[in-house]
Amino acid sequence: MQLAAMPKGRSATNFFIAVILRGAFQMTTSAEALPESRRVFRLFPEGEALRFELKNEGLPALAPNHVLVRIKAASLNYRDLLVARGQVKGVKEGLIPLSDGAGEVMATGQGTTRWRPGDRVAPIFYSAWHTGRFYTDYIASGLGAGTADGVLADVIAVHEDALVRLPDAYDFAEGATLPCAAVTAWQSLIVRGGLAEGDTLLVQGTGGVALFGLQIANAVGARTIVISSSDEKCRRAIEMGASATVNYRTVPEWDIEVRRLTDGLGASHILELVGPATFDRSLRALRAGGHIAQIGVITGFGVQSNLFRLQQINGTIDGINVGSREQFEAMNDFFCKHGIRPAIDRIFPMEETSAALEELANGMHFGKLVIGLN
What we know:
Distance between the termini: 45 Å
Order of helices and strands: HEEEEHEEEEHHEHEHEHEHEHEHEHE
Largest sheet: 8 strands, mixed
């Protein structure tokens, strides 16, 4: 076997770098295509809360069966606000926040078979939950909390099995809204709830999960009632296909109004997105044999309700904690088939992440808030 002649001087250094890179990256565009550094937000303690600190760092190491993804966009969930406020315990110092993003594969590590450079992808929320039932061991793999770094960096390293293909119909900002909010609505209504034509869905508010739920209901032929604090948001919900709306500021006993709108029967499915402050009304708004998907904790974590009502009407409650990669992929197929598109309120530049979190906290948005990274 004839060996290539080894160059001398600086060329020799470049030669060895190229050899090393060929060993580290099984498939890549080229060594020159990879940036020398990345921009990344990390969280550090500041009093009771956490502060966001933007840093320039070297690229993350690329282990076997991992890929480098250039994150193009990320989106915010209420969980991210809880993390920033210090209300989620066990967050490591220097954690990269946010669970939801979308981008493009830049390079792949040894042994990778699922992806090639240029593929458009989105990381899954629980990197360890690929298929089948949920186990509590998966909780530690939830991106952007605890010790699992998230996606608020313009380059991240991800195991090849913890990604889904982004449908061609979606741009990166739209794709970034899917991993948590959309999958949560999907598991709530289709996987666990069995939402079907002729059912009535009640959704609380007009955030990401609520509006994905509305669109899923439209697609299967179910009726949707939206409650909101804003007449303008109610109007926009009607434009998106809601059958009826209730402004809970002007009609505080919205459970009675929901029953009136359903001929006294109540809603067959409820996306419970608020928590303790609304749970009893949700129980009263639920029809016999109905289903509540318990998701939100906006008003706290300690639900204190008289569950006799649930027993009396043969109702069910499912605790919903996002979903698996398999569910994400099935949801993408359904969304593409039915032309479902994410509702995005506003896109912030990466440097204005703190302003985006403030916007999330004030609750004035309609749909999802997105961070543009590239």
